[in-house]
Amino acid sequence: MTFSLLGRCNRTGMIGAAVTTSSIAVGSRCSHARAGVGACLTQHRTDPRLGPLALDLLGRGYDAEHTLQAVLAVAPHHDWRQLAVIDAAGRTAAFTGRHVARAKAGEAQGKDCVAIANIVRSPDIPAAMVRAFEADPGRPLALRLVDALAAGEAAGGEFVPVISAALLVAHEESFPYVDLRVDSHPNPIADLARLWREYEPEAEAYVTRANDPGAAPGA
Fold first, then answer.
1. Burial zone of 194 (CB within 10 Å; 0-12 exposed, 13-18 middle, 19+ buried)
2. Which helix (H) or strand (E) holds 113?
């Protein structure tokens, strides 16, 4: 009941995730990212512990595919999971366990991106998300990620309405550059896009407040 995408901006080095589902609080469980390291998605009978594990392995120098295989080697009940990984170089990997209904699930990998989906109307939804993400590499990463969610919804979405969505982007700091979430909303993808438009003018100021508060613009 979830579709999502990991992506990297080749121009800035930003890396992030966008995810939506028909249950509440998807951003607290499924998406994980770390600046200069990579990002991970863990969904379908979600085990949130797998995200930090993947990031730690990426931080030790594993590429995306070796990270995914190492996680699967130790993850309990991995046949129930769907996972995606992207590393700092933009290499990707994905996995759909054998207990995930294949007729209602899919994976797609593209340039600097990977999309996964389960319990959705079409297995082609990940490919639609990848196409949307790849359409204009010059746009801000956050916007490309949200556009990918919108493309997944337009390609069929879930069998029931999605109600939560999340956007996570890591850049140069230990804290997220963007961490926006929408919960229990009738149109969470559109509202996530609205939140990004509101947050975008402030994003750099929040980084400056952390690094050089004297130079930061006032509230």
1. middle
2. strand 113-118
- Which of the four CATH numbers 3.40.50.720, 3.30.450.40, 3.30.2310.20, 3.60.20.10 does domain 2-215 have? 3.60.20.10
Secondary structure of 120-139 in HEC code, one letter for each residue: ECCCCHHHHHHHHHHCCCCC
What number of CA atoms fall less than 13 Å from residue 183's CA on the CB side? 8
How many CB atoms neighbour CB 209 within 10 A?
Answer: 15
Question: Where do the domains of the chain lie?
Answer: 2-215
As given in the structure block, the two tokens for residue 207 are 């980084």
Side by side, the strands of the sheet bearing 105-110 are 105-110, 113-118, 2-8, 15-21, 164-170, 178-182
The helix or strand, by DSSP H or E, that contains position 56, with its residue range, turns out to be helix 50-59
Cβ atoms of 20 and 149 within 8 Å: the answer is yes
Q: What is the pLDDT of residues 49-97, one digit of tens each?
A: 999 999 999 999 999 999 999 999 999 999 999 999 999 999 999 999 9
Contacts by 60-66, CB closer than 8 A, 24 or more apart: 62/87, 63/87, 63/89, 63/91, 64/38, 64/91, 64/92, 64/93, 65/91, 65/93
- Give the Cα separation of 81 and 72 in Å (integer): 9
**pLDDT exceeds cutoff 80 at 219:** no
CB 166 within 8 A of CB 38: no
